[in-house]
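Data card: per-record layout.
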Amino acid sequence: MKSWSATIKVSSDSIIVFDLDDTLYKEIDFLKSAYLEIAKYLDEDEWKLLYIQMFSLYRNGQNVFEFLSKKYEVGIDYLLSRYRNHFPKIKLSEGALTLLETIKKKNCKIAIITDGRSITQRNKINALGINNYLDTVLISEELGFSKPSKQAFKKLEDIYKNCSFTYVADNLKKDFIAPNALNWDSVYLIDDGLNIHVSQMDSLNPNNLAKKYISSLNQIIII
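The structure for this 223-residue chain is written out next.
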């Protein structure tokens, strides 16, 4: 019976590179964590109802921070700062920890290439407790470049010369353009319906597509 899977053959010269958001964990959980902290700050007595209202507004495509700014007379910039800088309560996606452990047992290097603000992304990595598995972390704010730019990917190639690279990520719009151009292997983690950013298949071309496809990280087979 056919099923989703991706086999990656590795050696000590292999570098497995991951995206962060909606790849190693679900970004919606970061949003929920931030909303909960903000709700408790703004309304100590009715924070539960406020959280429910905030998430409902988000699900309906409305501007949550604009609503909060007007209701509680607090600046949107301050709310955004609380959102981005809070230390989140998040967890690794199913299969992620086992995958990281398996890769390290094969004496491979693990890296992350992620778009976002430095403090936000590093708080996520610290909250997930995966620093000990990571050899290199490249964040767009620190580099000055974001995907689909090749800069972060080429920087990894400069760090790890004469190595083979595989990129595991979730966003067909931007994630695979650079690794495809550099002839990396690639694995697309299919949206399970909970991703923050939705891939638009009807607007894509072959340059955007990955070479392998999975619906869960535990479908990656390391040999």
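Known properties of this structure: The first strand starts at residue 6 and ends at 8. The CA atoms of residues 24 and 124 lie 10 Å apart.

See the next section for split statistics.
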